[in-house]
Amino acid sequence: MDRQNVIIDYENKLGSGAFCNVHKGKIKGPANVRAVCPSLIAVQRFTDCEVAIKLLPPFADDIARSDFAQEINFMKSLHYHPHLVSMLGYVPDARNPLLLVEYCAKGDLLHFIRNHRTEIEHVSDITKFA
């Protein structure tokens, strides 16, 4: 994607990983994933939409840059699936590459499950006797 079409909200950090930070952001215009999955749903959902943006911290070393490039290449090899968080595009900047993925408004799956444990257990108990 063109860097000019990506807006990063540096004040809204969603998390961090082994070698990246994740911030909330937005893309202007269509996401690149539409070329891979031109369905009506993708066209509607992935235009002018919120995204999670993975980026390297300023102090990232060559190993972190290599790991990040491998992650981007791996994500490019995966096909879009409506039940997985998918890559929407990337910005191939040599110094500051960006990986754009679907934004999950309810947070990451681990914290969602932990926060809703009692509800999930209750549903599980009901289905045991159905």
UniProtKB/TrEMBL annotation:
| Start and end residues of each Protein kinase domain | 8-130
Q: What top-level branch of life does the organism fall under? A: Eukaryota
List GO BP terms, alphabetically: cell surface receptor protein tyrosine kinase signaling pathway
- Coiled coil region boundaries: none
GO CC term, one of those recorded: plasma membrane
Tell me the InterPro entries matching this sequence: Kinase-like_dom_sf, Prot_kinase_dom, RTK, Ser-Thr/Tyr_kinase_cat_dom
Q: Name one GO molecular function term.
A: ATP binding
Which Gene3D superfamilies does this one have?
Answer: Phosphorylase Kinase, domain 1
This chain belongs to the protein called Protein kinase domain-containing protein
